[in-house]
Structure formats: C-alpha cells, structure tokens
Write a structure and sequence with these properties.
Oligomer: single chain
Shape: elongated
Strand order of the largest sheet: 3-2-1-11-12
Length: 530
C-alpha cells in the first residue's frame, strides 16, 4: 500500500497511530476508557538530559492524541527518588561517594537549594517540562512508598516471590531473585538501599527480614554495615526491585500507556509478565524508543557528563525547536548535540509554512503528517497566524559580526536586507538566541552540497575577487557576471552561495551580505568546498 493510500488517523502522525492502537487494545480488553492515564518515569539520580525529558514529552503527546480522539487522559510524571545512587555523576563533588547506595531522596542536595539530591534532579526535569508547556501530575517514589500506596501490590508480589524469582531467571537469566526477595528496604542503621537484602517475608505482619551485607553497586563491591532487622512494607522506607516495580505502579495508578528505552527492555518484559499474571492487571500499551547518542555515537548519560540539558538548549533554541525534535519520530537512534539547533529552528519555519498553506507538498499523507507534527509541536494549541521567519544561520552570522547593541544593529541590518519590514519582539528573541549560539560555538560544520564543475570554476573566480586587496565596485553585479561567464544560471549560483554560507537555499541580497560578513572570511568558507 502506498503512502497516499494509507488511512490518515487523527492528525496523521505516529502519535495518533499509537493512541488509536491503545484505544483498540483497551476496547478488546473490555476495560473502562473513562480515564486513560499515561506515565513517564523520571530518573532522579543525575542531571536530567533531553532523553529523560523526551520520555515525558512523548507520553504527553499520546495524552493529547487521546484527548483529540475524544477521551479523557492525564500524564503521571513519576520521580524515582528512592533509587539508590550508584556512582558520582561527572562534575559533581567527591563527597557524594559516602552516600553511594543510599536513596537519592536521603542524600543532601550538593547545590544546597532543595531538600535532597533527588528533589534537585527532579526539579530540573520538571522545570524543563514547565518551560515546554507540558502539564503533568507529579508523584514522588518517596511519598508513594511512605504513604503505603503500593502496599497491596508489594504484598502480592512478595507472597509470589518464589514464582517470580523462577520466571525472572527463565526470562532474562538473572538468578538472584531465587535467593532474595525482589524488595530492598532502606537499612535502618546505615540508610543504604542495595546492601540490605531481604530473605524472608512475614505476610501476616506485612514485614520483611533483611540483613545488610556486601553488594555489587555499579561494578564495585560495597560493604554492608552488618545490621539485621525487620522493615514494615506499609510505612518503612524501601522499594521494589526494578524487575517488578513498574508492574506495581501500573496496577496502583491504573496506567494504560508507558514508553520505554531499549536499555530497560529486560525489566519491561518481566514487569509485563508480573502485571498480567501476578497482579491480574493487563500491562500498559508500550512503544520502545531508541536512545539519544552524543555526536561521538555514545549514549547520552547522566554519569558520563555528555549531557544535553533542556536548560542549556533553551539558551540557544526556542521550546518549539525542542518539541519538534522530540515529536518528529520515536524510533531509530539519533545523534544529538547543540549543533542540531540551527537546523531545527529553520525546520520549524518550514513546517509552519506547510501548515498555513504557503508551501504545498506532493501527497496528502505527507501533508497531513507535516501539519500534524506542527500541531503537536504547538501542543495542539496552534497560533492563529505564522511567526515572522528569519533564517537562524543568517542570525548566527550577523551575531558573529555585531556583539554590542546586538538586537538593534541586527534588526537594522534585517530591515536593510529586506528580510523584515519592522522591528518585532519575536525576532528580537530569536536574535538573542542566535547571538548566544554565535558566542558559544565555533563555525558551522561543512554541509554536503552537490557542486558541478562549471559552478566550481565560478566559485574559484569569486574567491579570487573576494581575496583581492581592492574592494570590487559592485559585488552583487560582479557575482552575477561571474556566473554568466562560467555558463551558470545566476539564480543557481546565488543559491549555491546561500547553501555554503547559510545552509539555506535563499537569503538576503548576496553582495551586501558578503561584505557584512567579511570578504576574506567568505573566501575561506567557499575554499572548503572547492
């Protein structure tokens, strides 16, 4: 079936397809669809990056799609702030070493502004979501366990621990839960989590017996304090092992959708089984997404310190540029860095042009998908009129020239070039973002452009003119004549120059623009292509 023949669901995106599949499954299961809760787990053990934010943003997209299809939905943002610290993330103080294996909500905040390390990291993630306009119901692991919200699920899991231990070994080859219970109390003596291993459950009292001894944490052995004790699962601090905890949450909070990264596939397989077979709660609808990688192809990781945070992203790009990145697609690994911002800023303008009918695409499905992507990037709250479009790379180049009184001087240039008619607050904002980018990053990487021999000859001639000591009298006219003399259509030659200088197919009047950037600098840039 060709793309043209496919039935367009909702607004034509992968988000709508997921929501549609989810509703069909709920109807087959015969469950109530009066409220469809989606969940995103927020890690609280390190500086949150765009990957961790992406999980919640995409879940919110599914919530919006469900509402668009006529269903009530909400996003639960669950912070795992009882998770134990496994290692010190890059750039954080060494004294955190004494807190390894303690729940992050019991570790002091190294920045001194929140009640714990865990709450500091959660708040950075929530700040990222707030800046993007994502609405959520925030829940903390610490409160969830302390208030006994999972006690029934924990009880059921622990009374079936033998069966679960066998199944974990069968599904993923991990045998430790045949020896220990899948529940970690916080040791009453040393406050550590993973060193306190439970070996017996007393169902009538809802208590577990544990001893605190040596455990492997993040490939290192950590000594326990030797304490032996009992913990009450209804109120003492402790948590289920990851292999069973998702299932308990899904049941307690009635979660119907949760995406997951491929790094936790094994945990999800076990949790799905526990949810279905032990808790009798059909597991949520899932979608697996690939992880974001840094530009070297390594997984973006809180502990490696190669983190692209939303706070830093928003120094250079709009919230819409980040939402576009996250809503474009969900499958396939992607290398991600701040150098993607210029492309996304300009791509947002392109999809806005499609949405408002300024640009026509070649088929209905593609048009629907592009318009749908624009609508989700605006969280289904679409502006009535398009914004003023200024090429972001043009603003970066101008930002490199004008450092003082930047907004006013660049605005004046844009009016001179005929790019805008009047000053505009939105354009001011983009000038500031592009100026920040110009200050913090080196020149753009070379773009791949197809250049034929005639155009190369014309470019060589132009480099000679630009590198000469004497200013050409009329550079615009000179460029036009160089194209004609080398049998290149002037409009094609101008387009090649825009691609080389701006990474775009059009821009301001080329002659004055090259003089503003600097003839030598442009000559060097063109030189890289010939």
């Amino acid at each position: 079936m060709s793309e043209d023949d496919q039935k367009i669901i909702g607004r034509g995106t992968w988000i709508d397809k997921l929501a549609h599949e989810m509703i069909e499954r709920e109807q087959q299961l015969g469950r109530s669809t009066s409220l469809l809760r989606v969940e995103s787990g927020l890690g609280a053990s390190g500086i949150p990056h765009i990957g961790s934010l992406g999980d919640a943003v995409r879940a919110y997209g599914v919530k919006l799609a469900l509402e668009n299809l006529g269903y009530k939905s909400e996003l639960v943002a669950y912070s795992d702030d009882l998770d134990g610290l496994r290692k010190i993330p890059e750039g954080l103080p060494d004294w955190l070493g004494e807190h390894i294996a303690k729940p992050v909500s019991l570790i002091p905040d190294p920045f001194g502004c929140h009640d714990s390390y865990g709450m500091h990291m959660s708040s950075l993630l929530l700040d990222g979501l707030d800046n993007l306009g994502i609405k959520y119901d925030f829940r903390r692991a610490r409160d969830t366990y302390k208030n006994g919200l999972l006690k029934d699920q924990i009880h059921t899991i622990l009374t079936n621990s033998e069966k679960i231990g066998t199944k974990i070994a069968e599904l993923v080859g991990q045998e430790k839960y045949q020896k220990y219970l899948p529940y970690y109390p916080v040791c009453a003596n040393c406050n550590r989590l993973y060193t306190a291993e439970s070996y017996e459950y007393i169902p009538d009292e809802m208590k577990i017996k544990y001893r605190c001894h040596e455990a492997e944490i993040g490939s290192k052995m950590l000594k326990g304090c030797g304490h032996e004790g009992e913990a009450d699962i209804t109120k003492d601090l402790g948590k289920l092992a990851w292999k069973v905890e998702f299932a308990a949450r899904w049941h307690a909070f009635d979660i119907r959708f949760e995406a997951y990264g491929k790094d936790i596939m094994d945990s999800v397989r076990v949790n799905d089984w526990v949810s279905d077979e032990i808790l009798n709660h059909p597991h949520p609808h899932h979608v697996k997404y690939e992880m974001f990688l840094d530009k070297g192809g390594k997984k973006i990781s809180k502990s490696l310190g190669n983190v692209v945070t939303s706070q830093k992203w928003l120094k250079y790009g709009t919230p819409k540029s980040m939402l576009l990145l996250l809503y474009k697609r969900i499958t396939g690994a992607r290398e991600l860095g701040f150098e993607d911002i210029p492309t996304l800023m300009d791509e947002y303008n392109e999809i806005e042009d499609v949405y408002f009918g300024k640009v026509k695409l070649d088929n209905e499905a593609k048009t629907a998908r592009t318009k749908g992507l624009y609508e989700y990037t605006n969280l289904l709250n679409v502006p009535k009129t398009p914004s003023i479009h200024v090429n972001y790379r043009l603003l970066i180049e101008l930002g490199r020239i004008f450092k003082e009184d930047r907004v006013n001087r660049i605005t004046k240039k844009l009016i001179d070039y005929g790019v805008i008619k009047n000053p505009d607050p939105y354009v001011d904002q983009i000038i500031q973002l592009a100026g920040n980018y110009a200050d913090d990053f080196e020149e753009q990487e070379i773009m791949q452009i197809q250049i034929n021999d005639a155009t190369k000859n014309a470019l060589r001639k132009l480099v000679g003119v630009l590198a000469a000591e004497k200013d050409p009298e009329d550079l615009q006219n000179t460029i036009y004549n160089i194209a004609k003399e080398n049998n290149v259509l002037p409009k094609d030659f101008f387009m090649t120059l825009y691609q080389i200088i701006l990474g775009a197919s059009r821009g301001p009047k080329i002659g004055p623009f090259i003089i503003d950037i600097g003839r030598n600098k442009v000559a060097q840039t063109i030189g890289k292509y010939i």
